[in-house]
Amino acid sequence: MAPPDDGSDLPDDPVIRAGEYALGVLEGEELAAAQREAIAGGDFAAAVAWWQQKFAALAEEAGSLVPSTGVWNAIALRLPSRATDEVPTPAHPAEPSGIGGWKLLAALATAAAIAAAVTLFVATPGGPPRPVEPVTREAGPQIIAQLQSEDGESRIASRIDPDTGRLNLSIAGLTPEDEARSAELWVIPEGGAPRSLGLIPGDGEVTRSLSAEEASLLIEGATLAVTHEDRAGAPHEAPTPPILLAGPLSRL
């Protein structure tokens, strides 16, 4: 007859090991390794916390269980310091004597706890938290333009994500001296008329969603441009010369 499977061939499951750590049955290097993982946080620490919560609830439901006199007598019969014909019957359950008694109780308690843990693990919907593999989305093609003045003091770095319909701008040196005026961004389609994309700050970062019409214009081959315009009446129908910055959109 083949020997019973003792589980030694089972793969190391971090969730089960977290339960063993929470239960306090790990020893030696296994205990030290589990302590390091628990301190480090992450999925293992979350699983330990889950087990501790479940064990605490289990202990509350079980209440205080005291072994009967018969159990203590059976333990006493197995202790070398007692004669088999001198087994006392204590009025109240006494503590076990000798190392053997404690080992037996510890073994019984551990076996019961492990059995309860396995039952709890199987019966609890969802179980403890398992590591979740990150879902990564590959970035699609980006549309970019780099606009810069000859002296390099005024510039815009733009990026359009066609998948999300978002426009990102990094702007510097475009604040006009006249406070009544502001920088205005334009897109000029190939062979088409300029279309205003609205006023933009003279410095800083801008991120906004594009309308369907704007997204259809901001494609490879079109041109981005910047002018200074009156704040009143924006967005304007056409740009006012001079063109401060201009540059083509290209696919990255």
Automatic annotation (TrEMBL):
Residues 231-252 are annotated as: Disordered. Residues 111-243 form the Anti-sigma K factor RskA C-terminal domain. InterPro entries: Anti-sigma-K/W_factor (IPR051474), RskA_C (IPR018764). GO terms for biological process: regulation of translation. It holds the Pfam family RskA_C. GO terms for cellular component: plasma membrane. Signal peptide: none annotated. GO terms for molecular function: sigma factor antagonist activity. This is Anti-sigma-K factor RskA. It comes from Novosphingobium marinum.
